[in-house]
Amino acid sequence: MDVYEAVTSRRAVRGFTDRQVPREVLERVLSAAAWAPSGSNLQPWHAYVLTGAPLAELKRRAGERVAAGDPWDEREYEMYPATLKSPYRERRSAFGHERYSALGIAHEDWEARQRAASANWECFGAPAALFCYIDRDLGRPQWSDVGMYLQTVMLLLRAEGVHSCPQMAWSVYRKTVAEVLSPPDALMLFCGMSIGYEDGTVGYTRTGRAPLDETVTFVEG
Fold first, then answer.
1. Residue 47 pairs with which residues in a beta bridge?
2. How far is the C-alpha of 120 from the C-alpha of 193, rounded, in Å?
3. Where is the chain membrane-spanning (predicted)?
4. Which of 53, 91, 114, 160 has its CA 20 to 30 A from that of 5?
5. CA 31 to chain centre
6. Helix axes 88-102, 110-117, angle to 10 degrees
7. Are 168 and 191 spatial neighbours (Cβ–Cβ below 8 Å)?
8. What integer pLDDT is reported at residue 118 of this predicted model?
9. What integer pLDDT is reported at residue 218 of this predicted model?
10. What's the pLDDT score for residue 112?
11. Mind listing the pLDDT tens digit for each residue in 17-27?
């Protein structure tokens, strides 16, 4: 698989089989992803990979919270601005419509939407999950470095025939994640990432992208 194919075939998969991702594949991907760029080579990412019993335990604990109706943990960073301006507001709205329409869920069916969202805590059935932390003392440039690292991980997974789903949703269950992982207090959970082989029986609609002239300006001589 070449780089272009990896980029265009990468998407947030929300339905995985229980086929295990070999340990050597995960090690190969994460070893290569360490070459992702970062300012002054700080490499500000801290990744934890869960499989088997530890991941099952995390899913169990998260499921218990969902069943009990426990409130979410307070986020330690702002996921979106309180007021999302155009064109970002429209893009987010279009994504939500496409996502739930593919599941046959009406916009006004809040309970069904909540049930669909709760699949996050099952990692959409994935047999592996990565949780990415960043040091609390680092700044916005280092957060962008973490984003480049995560994208590198996802593209390398595609090269291995594996899919993924990045999930900032785990930030609201960060305390449950910490119960299983016991990360140092100095680290903040940025996101989780479900990893596995796609379940082709789960329907989806591929979300679109803005046309090039909306996001790119060529300044030519």
1. 132
2. 10
3. none
4. 91
5. 19
6. 90
7. yes
8. 78
9. 96
10. 56
11. 999 999 999 99
State which amino acid sits at residue 93. Answer: S
Question: What DSSP line would sit under 103-172, residue for residue?
Answer: TT--TT-HHHHHHHHGGGGGGGG-SEEEEEEEETT--HHHHHHHHHHHHHHHHHHHHTT-EEEEEGGGGG
The single residue listed with the structure tokens 């279009």 is: 94
Pair of tokens at residue 41:
């080579």
Contact 150, 191 (CB under 8 A): yes
Q: Which two tokens stand for residue 29?
A: 């991907």
Quickly tell me which residue has 């089989």 as its tokens: 17
Contact at 8 Å (CB) between 62 and 192?
A: no
Read off the amino acid at residue 40: S
The alpha carbon torsion through 32, 37, 41, 44 (nearest 10 deg) reads -80
User: What Rg value do the Cα atoms of the chain yield, rounded?
Assistant: 18
Regions of the chain where pLDDT drops below 70? 99-116
Cis omega (within 30 of 0) for bond into 54 = no
